[in-house]
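(Fold this chain)
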Amino acid sequence: MLVPNPLLPGFHPDPCICRVGEDYYLATSTFEWWPGVRLFHSRDLANWQPIGYALTRRSQLDLRGTPDSGGVWAPAITHADGRFWLCYSEVKSLTGPYKDVCNHLVTAPSIEGPWSEPVRLNQSGFDPSLFHAPDGRKWWLNQRWEVRPDGNCFAGIVLQEYDPGGQCLVGEPRLIFRGSSLGCTEGPHLYFRDGYHYLVTAEGGTGWEHAVTVARARDIAGPYEVSPYHPLLTANARPECRLQKAGHGSLVEAPDGRWFLAHLCSRPVGVQRRCILGRETALQAVVWPEGEWPRLASGDSVPADTVELPGVEAVGEAASDAAVALPTGGLGVEWNTLREPPDGSWLDLDSRPGWVRMRGRFSLQSTFENSLIAVRLTALRCTVGVTLDFAPTDFQQTAGLVFYYNSRAYHALLLGWLPGVGRVLRVLSADAMEVREVVPLGAVRPVDGPLRLEASLADGQLQFGWSRAEPGREVSTVGPVLDATVLSDDRVIETGSWGFTGCFVGLCAQDATAAGPWAAFTNFRRTETSG
């Protein structure tokens, strides 16, 4: 069966794939979103089920104050010695010439956990991985970040032995690969086959020039020779390709000897070619004859829109979280929070059956204490709605529906209050840290009682609306059509910042008084129509 790419639509970047028997597992980056490192399982490479997260405890991950697009980068998952091994970077700052990074390792007897407390191993760069050599030794790899003004900040891939008994790195780190002419060498994964060590790296940066590079050496320390079919994968200079920014890949061998490459990609929309859904996960078939170099099955380096997966009869929608319900008793795998786990001080899932209650805290600009739960946006066309019961008594209290990229980029439909007026609907739009009131304050005065808040997204255009929370009520639009493409890596980079995530849609509450009423939400619906 021809299976369409991407396999994991929406914000699912930096995929790392491995196989254990008949089961495939895949991990993706989560950056500032909680919990950390999203995990998937599949038996056929086509249908992927989200099975939870590896970093689910405060003792494992502290993201409070983490900058936008900091946090958990590039997890690398492997299985050896009856355990799962997961390496990842935790990025504490990324502005200016420096990258303040802690590289960690956690392990678990099962993919469901329990995952161990992190072991911090080094901080010389990012994107760590662990190679289990045939002789039983273990080797740690990561990108080395250079801060000298006359140096290449992407200084290459370093290798160091890992001692599992002491849970530490031993010996001196060795620079084994400086990269190809594409530059920006990162994301290393090492494989041993037919007497060669194959080093797979990401290169070219995470934008339009992104690529996957393969090099090999007899000795693990090199020297490494770049493939004559370089690069293995890229959409660079191919604007006609549907899947752009293709890179950061990892390889997996199926039980029947076929090989596949999991990699990230993005799908631009509009004349400005911005990627609202962020960096997604796709799969390519690879041919790898004995003693030869791996190549895409197409014979080209261009990412294909489909991948041939024999034996697959149907592809479901579970991987895209198409059916999302409000959580009860605890947040499910579809829902995420920002920078910290939910707790009863601001999120109540139980006291009002069928409703989620939320106590407002800091603003959407904050990197601390955001009262927000959200799901990934996974299609370019969708409608979203939720019923809100909220009675603010102060102008500093708001709650509602938000399309959120980061603290500098979002569109929100919020129910608030004005003295002498009462309840009002507000539309806040943030772009490059500039926040606008799109609708004149007091212009939209909804009726008392619960309201239905709605939004419609179509290929980069976003329209908010509202109605009474009663069946059959006509929806009234609120404000103009908004440019949803500002909710993208591309727009954030245009404004001189960094962005590596994707758009979420969620429920939020803000309260500068710290004493206002709780907002209650029910009947959340997200209906995707295409994309």
